[in-house]
Protein: DUF2264 domain-containing protein
Organism: Nonomuraea terrae
Amino acid sequence: MSGDADPRSPDDDRRLSPYTGWTRRHLLYLADRSLLALRPWSTPGHARFDLPGPPSDAGPIVGGLEAFARSFLAAGFRLSAAESDPHDHAGWYARGLATGTDPASAERWPSLADAQQARVEAALIAIALHESRRWIWDNLTPRVREQVVDWLAGSVGAWYPDSNWQWFQNVTHAFLRSVGGPYDQAKIEENLEFLDTCYLADGWYSDNRPDGRGGNIDWYAGWVMQQFSLWYCRISAGEPGIAERQALYAERLKAYLAGAGELFGADGAPLYQGRSLVYRHAAVGALWTGAVFDANPYSPGRLRRTCMGAIKYFVERGAFDGDGLLSPGWLGRFEAMRESYISPGSPYFASLGLTGLVLPESHPVWADVEQPAPIDLEDRVGAIRPIGWLVSGTASDGIVRVINHGVDYSGAVPMGERPLYNRFGYSTATAPVPLLSAGEAVDNQVALIDQSGRWSQRPLIDLISINDHRAESRQPARFARAEPAEGFDTGPELTCISLVRGSVEVRAVRIESAVQAEALVMSGFAVPRKPAPGARTDLVSAVAPLTDGGSTGTTVHPVETAFGADLEVPWCRFDAPESNRWYVVAVSLGDRAPTWPAVEPDRSGRLVVTWPGGAIEHI
């Protein structure tokens, strides 16, 4: 990373951090270097960073504001517990605040009324102002304070969709309330009521929930629904009812982290699932928040091992370009991950990953010796029940996999499958094939092929049951229509059961009603034949039939993901499938081929799975 000071990164400290080598000094260094690398791209008054690259749908001016607001969040965390400010981050961002909120400035920011995206950035600026209050807000002139309040006050009366965005409005209002600005208490309460309806159980929120379904799940459950809820309370300290609300949110966060904290590989990689993945190490923001609010289900050293492992994973694999800018992508720059709302400044939402800097060096999360994560020591399989996920981590290869029986990101009216939501499996080492079936198997499918050659999709998933290593769900087979262009033809319902041990999933499928289909296909994880720099090169993905009639093969898709190109997908095909019969395969992803379990009927006709080692289960 480039910059104008501090040319050398701190040395690793293997005494304090035996797993990552990184300490608070490394995170300070990362914050400083990334902020300094932005400065050459600043407008003269520091109100924007006009970074290279194509703009988002919101346009380049809003993109420049995004880069300012999201990096200011990093500066706010950097300054929160700081005893000094050697790079004058406070002065730099104070000048930008004065310029961006000045109605007469050529660099003035779009109003919250005119630019919806500015409503998100206002919340980040509010948090940054709160955390850096003694460095910046307390030293602004009365005129600049008034300008800032006037700009943030555009949140009052502005429309925010029924989604995680309502936390952005509440955080902005909370800051306005804390400095004597205008705010709408009735709207705050209305938003809190809606956001509580998004709560499922065990700490998990389903974003938006258009019809009460629990399938709208991704990393937003942590980096907005959890973290922003508690920062709303932090900014609102002393307000009536806030202490009780903070206790409730902390309890939810603690439960959330007990599951989400297991979604990181031994190399630090977070689970690759859902949208906005260019935010990268924002995924650990909620974990740091657990330490800030005493809502941590792990030891301080265990939490730091996961957080620093994830941040280090991205830093060491090229997340920052040669000029020190955080690129759109996952490992390094990968433009195909740029969604329509992603500007060159959007990846700096990763600043949430620096949340731990609000804790002083004396805090146990920094002072205690790193402790191992479970995946460092042993194989583990568990369930995240509210969302229908089985989570399997294996110590031998350090990979975490999720078997998905509940998340589909769909409402009552089915839409086309989304590769990052509807597939049967996700992992910390692979990405899904970024397309739907076009006559070939994509990864982690259970699909019928009808007599017209159409492959069924899985836009709606209904979870039936789940325990620590078994999940069952139903999915209606939906066939996309050629004419009209929109909509689906509904085929038979499929019941799907997964049994998971170690790196192997036993996947059993039964067609519940009369069927006229050419084939039933089940597939495994997609592994690139040409791994990207920083991606694993030792992955083995395999599928094996465990009941009669299955034929196997592989399909190579000449497309690219963040992990590499030429994606090879193993599959098993059962021709002319019948109803009310179980079709069973085993699916694995690891660094070696596994020993497969066996499936045989018992005397009553029930299928019995015998695992290597002798454990027995019934399908």
Q: What stands out?
A: The chain has a mean pLDDT of 95. Residues 24-376 form a domain with the Glycosyltransferase fold (CATH 1.50.10.20). The two ends are 53 Å apart (CA to CA). The chain has two domains: 24-376, 380-618.
